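Input for the complex:
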Amino acid sequence: MSYAIEFTGPTTLPVAESNVAFPVGRIYCVGRNYAEHAREMGHDPDREPPFFFMKPADAIVMSGATIPYPQVTKDLHHEIEMIVAIGKGGSDIPVDKALDHVFGYGVGLDMTRRDLQGEAKKMGRPWEMGKAFDNSAPCTPLKTVAMVGHPAKGAVWLKVNGKVTQKGDLAEMIWNVPETISYLSKLITLRAGDIIMSGTPAGVGPVQAGDTLEGHVDGVGDLTISYAK
Ligand code: MN
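Predicted:
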C-alpha cells in the first residue's frame, strides 16, 4: 500500500553510543512535580494526584540545534526535565514493576508559551497552545538502562547564557518515576515508544531570541539549544 500524501515516518531519538534510533510515539508531561516549582506557579504542593498533558512527537528537536523563537508568544519559558523512554507498554502497571517498562532516559526541555498557558488557565481552556507547539520539546539522545540504571537522585539544572536559573534534584520529585508510570498507565495504556517528561524543578523563567540554554541531569546527560536572533 502506498500513502495518499507524503509520509515522513516517525519522529526518532538517537540511542547514545549505538547506531539505532528510538521511534517516539506519544509524549506525556507531568505537571507540577517538584514542590518548589508548584509553589512558584501559585499552587499548594500537597501530594495531590499527578496530572498530565501532552506534546506531539514532532515537537522534538535534537540537542545542539538552533531554533527560531516560537510564534505568537512574548513569554517563552524553559522547563528542564528528565525524560523517560518507555520500552514496554502496559496498563495498570504496579509501582514495583514500573521500572521494567523503561527503555532509557534523556534530558529534555518542556518549552512553554507561558502567556498562552496563563490565558488558557484563566479561561478554563486546554493548555495545548501553551505547551504543544513547533520545537517545544528539545531532547538529548537516550541512554539505555544498561548505561545509566534508573536515576532517582542527582542534580538537575539549567543555565541561560551561562547563568544558572533552575536548580533541583531528581530526589525532590513529588511523584517519582515508578509512581508516575504506574499512575499514567491507569489513565491510558502505555505503549513502547512513549516518552514521559517527568516535571521541572523551580526557577522556570523567560527565554529571549538569541539565548543559549544548557541543561543537565546528573548521570543522564547534557542538552544545549540556541534560539536564533
Ligand atoms: Mn514541565
